[in-house]
Write a sequence for this structure.
């Protein structure tokens, strides 16, 4: 099965004039409410064999154009390539049939590096019927024309990870040229203009990481500049990424993956094992939001159905350890929260 015909919508020139921002009521919704619904483990899911997850993130590509110090992706602890279209088309249909409602077209890579991102969105919306398809980007490659292609395909949510205050910090954190900081800011503004001008039913959001106590003050001006162009902005703690980046550059990460600042969750049991799936580009179901080296592999979806992997014996044992709040001797033990 080959890729469907590329989606190439007409894109108006957004660089020549300012386009007034108008509110699109259909997308004036809260992304934090959706996040909080996924990070809160319902009683029915507090079992070793929970129902199909509400949300799944799928890695169209493991490649990334940045090497942020707080992310272990740049360390290349596992292969970095793209998912095959045939696998993507099959597993998304299977997940939707199992009851998955929200599909995130990203995991540890930057999905705007994937040439068939618009086709992936259209397939998820039109062929599979996912009610909600979302995407998080570092913003460097999310130019207005590429954003419009994604929105025209049916994207419901586009979130920018906006984690730097200025070009100097941008270069220090991402290890790419500092002047690209302005490109990210322009792309955030461009995404809002594309959305409003086209009337697309897609939320535009941004999140920022608090690296340390000074980051709130340092980020104030940058966040103030982009805030009028997003439907919502929120703050995230610095994660240790399952222990892979704990203590990088002298920082102190939040224990485990506790969600967002303002609605932090207990580190145990970890919500990611119960309410959200994570699929790597090569077709493995990971138990962790940060499976950089494959140690959290719970099943090979190339040879087994999604729900069989979701309820695999390995996954059941890891969930039970989390429910018991004792993960000593498990793959979760290296996370900073449990040392």
């Amino acid at each position: 099965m080959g890729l469907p015909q590329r989606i190439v919508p007409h894109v108006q020139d957004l660089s020549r004039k300012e386009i007034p921002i108008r509110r699109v009521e259909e997308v004036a919704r809260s992304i934090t409410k959706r996040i909080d619904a996924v990070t809160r483990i319902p009683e029915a899911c507090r079992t070793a064999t929970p129902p199909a997850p509400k949300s799944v993130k799928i890695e169209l590509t493991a490649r990334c154009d940045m090497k942020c110090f707080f992310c272990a992706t740049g360390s290349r602890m596992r292969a970095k390539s793209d998912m095959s279209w045939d696998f993507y088309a099959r597993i998304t249909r299977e997940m939707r049939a199992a009851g998955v409602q929200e599909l995130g077209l990203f995991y540890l890579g930057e999905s705007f590096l994937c040439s068939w991102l618009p086709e992936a969105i259209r397939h998820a919306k039109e062929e599979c019927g996912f009610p909600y398809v979302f995407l998080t980007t570092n913003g460097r490659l999310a130019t207005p024309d590429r954003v419009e292609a994604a929105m025209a395909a049916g994207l419901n949510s586009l979130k920018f990870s906006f984690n730097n205050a200025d070009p100097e910090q941008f270069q220090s954190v991402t290890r790419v040229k500092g002047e690209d900081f302005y490109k990210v800011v322009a792309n955030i503004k461009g995404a809002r203009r594309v959305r409003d001008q086209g009337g697309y039913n897609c939320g535009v959001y941004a999140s920022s990481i608090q690296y340390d106590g000074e980051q709130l003050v340092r980020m104030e001006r940058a966040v103030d500049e982009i805030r009028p162009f997003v439907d919502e902005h929120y703050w995230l703690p610095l994660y240790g990424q399952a222990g892979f980046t704990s203590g990088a550059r002298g920082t102190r990460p939040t224990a485990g993956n506790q969600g967002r600042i303002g609605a932090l969750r207990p580190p145990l049991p970890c919500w990611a094992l119960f309410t959200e799936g994570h699929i790597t580009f090569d077709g493995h179901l990971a138990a962790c939001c940060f499976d950089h080296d494959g140690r959290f592999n719970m099943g090979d979806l190339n040879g087994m159905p999604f729900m069989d992997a979701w309820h695999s014996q390995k996954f059941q044992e890891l969930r039970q350890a989390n429910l018991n709040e004792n993960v000593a001797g498990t793959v979760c033990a290296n996370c900073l929260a449990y040392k």
